[in-house]
Amino acid sequence: MPTTRPRSRLTIAIVAGVVLSGLVGLWAASFPGGQLVAALVATVGFGLLAVVWLVLVILAIARRRFRWTLVALPLTAAVVLLLGQSNLPDRLGLALARSDLDQARASGQCPARVGWYPVARCTTALDEQVVIVEDAGFLNEEGFAHFDTPPEPDPGSGFVARHIAGGWYRVTIVW
Predict the structure, then answer these.
(1) Residue 15: CB partners within 8 Å, gap ≥ 6?
(2) CA 20 to 30 Å from 46, out of 28, 56, 142, 154?
């Protein structure tokens, strides 16, 4: 029966850590405005993995042996960073919360949860219901709203709407 070499176990552990940190980072990015604690966990995870990766790169250079597994961490980190900055996490979050948001919009009631997001409160902006997600954003309140006509940008209002899909917007209320 073949045994797993220690290097293979280390490679598996690094790849698992990269995937886990990447998934936590993307989950944090799917919150409107981001989720600070999960983003910090993902950042610390990537930071620890970067230190291990750097040690492995130094050892590979010293031994003059390049290993293709050393490409996994920076490549995955770059993909996660690019995906996190795209509209994909917002679209995923909206897709998971869409049915609850549609129900709340139709009933005019403030739900306790929308998708996997806990709701802090509901408010009204531009005559539409805005569902504020708990623990989303950092210093601002973040949530979802549906507008039939795109809201006009008003720099001094403290209200910012970023289009996600259809008539749905990610709303930031700056205080």
Answers:
(1) 69, 72
(2) 142
What distance separates the 2 farthest-apart alpha carbons in the chain? 69
Q: Which amino acid is at 170?
A: R
CA distance 38 to 20: 12
- φ, ψ at 172 (rounded to 5°): -120, 125
Give the residues across from 171 on adjacent strands.
Answer: 143, 161
CA angle 153, 158, 160 (to 5 degrees): 45
In the predicted structure, residue 117 carries a pLDDT above the cut 70: yes
Strands (E), 32-158: 113-114, 117-125, 128-133, 141-146
Torsion angles phi and psi, residue 57, rounded to 5: -65, -45
C-alpha distance from residue 36 to each of 20, 106, 113 (Å): 17, 31, 19
CB 24 within 8 A of CB 41: yes
